[in-house]
Amino acid sequence: MAGDRPHIIFIITDQQRFDTIRALGAFTWDLPEDTHPDVFVGDMATHWIRTKPKDEERPLFLEIGFPGPHPPYDPTPEMAQKYMERDLPLQDVTPQELDSQPEVYKRMRVHNAEVDHDSVVHLLDPTDEQRHRQRAHYMANVEMIDKKVGEILDALEEKGYLDNAVVIFTSDHGDCLTDHGHSRKWTMYDTITNMPLIVSSPGRFQGDRRVAGLCQQMDIGPALLELAGVDVAPTMEAELLLPALNGEAWTPREVVFAEHGRDGILQETDFMTMVRAEQWKLVHFVDWPDGQLFDLVADSAETHNLWHDPAAATKKQELLDELRDWRIRSDVHTSGWAAAWH
Fold it and tell me: pLDDT value at position 336?
């Protein structure tokens, strides 16, 4: 028996469903601004910094994770309007590019157009207006986070933490935002794998610098451990990044890697792996004969897939060999990581 609890019947009309589909996950946050997830996280962090007594004996480690910019792309109406009025660049998506993509990507595009994932129903052929709206809302979300980061830094300064602190801003992945005909992540384009890594420590690291060269996000790990006076485990595959932060001689990685296993969206392969050098990128699928190969100097937009191009066969094999050797080296390097628990 339901007792005093009411039955709830939710009715949605075709028009509402159509609006959800054509929005590409771009909505506005129409509740009070302080209830927005990113605002809440930022406000909670500044409240904690300002109200928790500072421990003068032990250093602070504080990790703050903003939910955004993540679907749904839901800035406040005022912030959304600010970016809706801007001319935002849209990368052309051509039939030739779509035809050259691996079968895994082609099937994933169809799947994402049929299923609502995190309030995003992908469109196979969105209009420029729809693409612009999605991008505007995404960028508005970014600015909302940027504002909260500034408030966090102000709170840290007020409490005296910034006199001896290292602040790191980073993310886990990017978003296609309909570039390449795709929604969100689950691909290996640079717009997905290139992530921000901003480090600030006045008095320790010289500011206003860009460090060129390839690194993996995990390379920040040893730097954090060294700054904290903790030994770096020999089984860690991360490479030293602290010399680059210190402005010292630093050797970038020659190649970097990324991986993604089968999940609810990447359903057509058991495993996808990327190997990227300064000029070339290869994307490999463990259970498919096709993949992706890009000359990033001649084709920085990654729209001309050279996987089946005979003229690029030698480079393709070189990168496949690099991928194979890396897997072997990784297995050997990390073989003793659990030795202490045996």
Answer: 86
